[in-house]
Amino acid sequence: MKLIIFDFDGTLIDSAPDLVDSINEMLKELNLKEAPFKEAIKWIGNGSLKLVERALRYNGIEDEKFLEKAHKVFKEKYKHSNAKKTTLYPFAKELLDSLKDKNLALITNKPDEYIKPILKKFDIDVFDFILGGDFEYKKPSPIPLLKALEYFNVKPNEAIMIGDSKNDILAAKNANIKSIAVTHGYNQGVDIKDYDPDFIVNSLKEIKDIINAM
Q: Which of 16, 51, 142, 155 has the lowest tally of Cβ within 10 angstroms?
């Protein structure tokens, strides 16, 4: 493997507490019904706009202009959260440190403005290529992954995608790249096994051995 592609939220970082707090703060400001954590966590995935859209749908609202307004409110709330409740998953930093001899890419549906501050906060700003949610195409589209292949000039069989959601696994399949699914993330309440990743791990600690064996 010449290229290791990582997802971010739910794979390397547990950002759900800050995302849920921010979405509920948004709902409160808009005088809408807040959601319990177990419900709101299912909305995470496909980027911040989709997160807000699902929160509004939970309140029976489907209106494009209101969605735009609510999205701006959410982005401010999340920005000011400063990732105070966000944590690294166990062995995330150790895994990244152990792969420094590889090309590392981070492909996430998270808006670009939030990525670098979190990477720096946890001292994991080690990626040679970063593509965030401001890019026109988002996972499960294969295009972000293909951009990484092009950047590093590697073939699909020389790369692997590591993620926690169906978006990651489907993007990898669509790009003809192998995938490793972690079970500790967010997948909108669906079992990640249903999407047939090439490997499934319960801990990031298991990943280095898989990569070394390929």
A: 155
pLDDT of residue 187: 83
**What sections of 11-165 are H helices per DSSP?**
16-29, 37-40, 48-58, 64-81, 92-98, 112-121, 143-152
Rounded CA-CA distance 112/8 in Å is 12
Residue-range domains of the chain with CATH: 3-14+86-212 (3.40.50.1000), 16-81 (1.10.150.240)
Confidence of residue 189 (pLDDT cuts 50, 70, 90): confident
Those residues whose C-beta lies under 8 Å from the C-beta of residue 65, and which sit 6 or more positions away, are none
Residues 6 or more apart in contact with residue 56 via CB below 8 angstroms: 32, 62, 63, 66, 67, 70
pLDDT in tens, 66-78: 999 999 999 999 9
Residue 205 has a CB neighbour count (10 Å cut-off) of 13
